[in-house]
Amino acid sequence: MAIERGGLGSDLGAVLGMGRCWGWGGGAGRGAIGGGFAPIAGARQNLPWGAIATPAAVRGGEWRRGKAPGRWRPVDRACFFSVLPQRRPMKTFVSAKIHGVYVTDRNVDYNGSVGICAELMAQAGIDPYEQVHLVNLRNGERWVTYAIPAERGAFVLNGGSARLGEVGDRCLAIAYRLSDRPFEAAVLFCDRENRVASTGTYDVVPTL
Fold this sequence. Notes:
7% of the residues lie in helices and 32% in strands. The chain folds into 2 domains: 1-86, no CATH class; 91-202, Barwin-like endoglucanases, CATH 2.40.40. Strand 6 and strand 7 form a beta hairpin. It is globular and about 50 Å long. It is mainly beta. The chain has helices at 8-15, 118-124, and strands spanning 22-24, 37-39, 91-102, 105-107, 114-117, 131-136, 142-150, 155-158, 170-179, 185-190, 196-202. The protein starts with 7 loop residues before the first helix and ends in a 6-residue tail after the last strand. The longest helix is centred in the N-terminal third of the chain and has 8 residues, at 8-15. A 9-stranded mixed sheet has the order 4-8-5-7-6-9-3-10-11. The chain is built from 2 helices and 11 strands.
């Protein structure tokens, strides 16, 4: 966003992230109280939050003022602007994965969740009551629940999850995390007894 000389209104508009900014024209003098606001034509729309324009950023524009208090008047030229460095947007990345874990029990009367071997959870970095996405590799079902620690080698579908799989089904358990940049994620590959057969990581891929 850009501002006029004495642009009190534009500073405020820029800080608030408004799509169109207004300059304080000044009646008795530039920036004087009692002057009219002037909308700056050609100001860039939809700037990110915190975009700040400064007079030093204005290049080649005309300084304009309202002719009388309360008079609205557009500035004819588009003004240039400067933007402060912005934080990268938050995205959802995979943070842990348990691959090929077998269902050992089902309990439809339990109040929800999935019971995962506590050792697997700790090694994968999944906390108790953390949200996990489950995928049943036999029937293709995919759903979201939360993990609770269970005894060694256990993988128990509780509550409604019990309707989505059978004992012996091979599944995936995936956890996600919000971050402003990618990071390495641990992957555990299980054997038929739900012990860790091998491990891996999802490495960070450089972005352009």
